[in-house]
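worker-03 picked up job from queue 'complexes'. Input manifest follows; two sequence lines, order preserved.
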Amino acid sequence: MQARRFVWLRQAAAFALLLLVWEAAGRAGLLNPLFAPSPSQIGAALGELFGSGRIWPHLEATFTAALGGLVIGIGAGVMLGVIAALVPLVAELLEPVMTVLNAIPRVVLAPLFVIWLGIGLASKVALSFILVAVLIFFTVFGGIRQVDRRLVERIVTLGGGRWDLVRHVYLPSVTAWVLGNLKVAVGFAFTGACVGEFVAASRGLGYLLSFAQSTYNSALMFALIFLILVVVLLIFWIAGLLEKRLLRWQ
Amino acid sequence: MLEGASLTVGDGEFVSLVGPSGSGKSSLLRAAIGLQRPLAGTVETEVAPAEVGILFQDDALLPWRTVCENVALGPAFHGVERRDAMARGEFWLERLGLIGLGGRFPRQLSGGQRKRVALAQVLVMAPKLLLMDEPFASLDAIVRARIVQDVAELVERDGISALLVTHDLEEAISLSDKIYLLSSGPRAHISQEYAVPIPRPRDPVIARTHPAFAPLYETLWADLSRQVDGDGHPAEAA
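worker-03 finished. Artifact:
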């Protein structure tokens, strides 16, 4: 019964049971559909979104913002982290700024980005970016300072130069740390995109959510939450594959 | 801390450096290959840096490179083409009894196997002088005896000079032609030099049964104990 390979089966059964009870309670009139629509109503809302095809531009907008922020954020985070780790002056100036940015809930910057960059894609990418970049900066900055000295000495005593150190020690170390934080970064990127759309937008899942809120359409709201969940899980899965491939030495 | 030391390792000679903790044995090796600068004074060596190999206490293999890639690092740094470097790596892995493990990652090997990889990584560079900083300390007894045997054999066959830093007097005697004893800190120096009158070629495990082994061990032990106890003036001996 307790065999590990049946874990997913038990989990699926529990989930199905929950849905069943939920549906039954809804049909028996125990739940107010205004607050808690039944699974079938949520399913219908999802079907309508995809059936009519009106979900696609919104999905595209959120994906573009999240992935754009993710890619630029990782790029900038790695670059700044490396530079700060190598140039003490840069670290002196950058670290306090990053520490402050890390301490505040960065989504509070969303309204500011809307004023600066408008309600289009740019403000969402910017919010995703700032969420991801600060995380990756600290990952890389801290990581490089903790590079195993023994590995560095080994490369040097075998006759390796500066470039060999970068290629054989620093680059693989940085890759490992960034990949270790990739799932968190993906979560941050979608948080940034959705919150940005929530604040002010004309497209996107976050925009649809705020629309559902203003029209008290709870079925649509649940459908969207479910959709975002599936999307993020999908990207987690891809990130997991990438991690497995690149960190197969672990 | 070490204060002035001059030691000679003859061609093909195996020399050990023993002494209390903190006397600067490791620092001496590190200074010899430029990893550490002396607080004052200079370090003079008569071999080119490229001809010196060093084996550390930790194997320090790159975890993200395969075993063979790790061994091929040195040649690659010296301009050998990748394929050639890998071939040399395979050759040395084979010589150290690691046939078929070249494609694994270090994490997949045992401690003894990793130590052999680290050894291959150094020997592939065909060093004239091999420095060893307590390289076998972390291994368990049998694995350790086997690897010590192999090191003795390889070093002897290839005519490599060796300088071993160790805490282990038995290891020092069974491997060496000559042993230096460092005095204890804070102003450590080389206090004694001992010739090991056991003929070579020899098997380090068998060497322990040689009649000269026990008396030398006793002398070394007595002198080292005096250092550790802090009197610092070894008796006149050998």
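worker-03 released lock.
Chain A has a mean pLDDT of 91.
Chain A touches chain B through 20 residues (CB under 8 Å).
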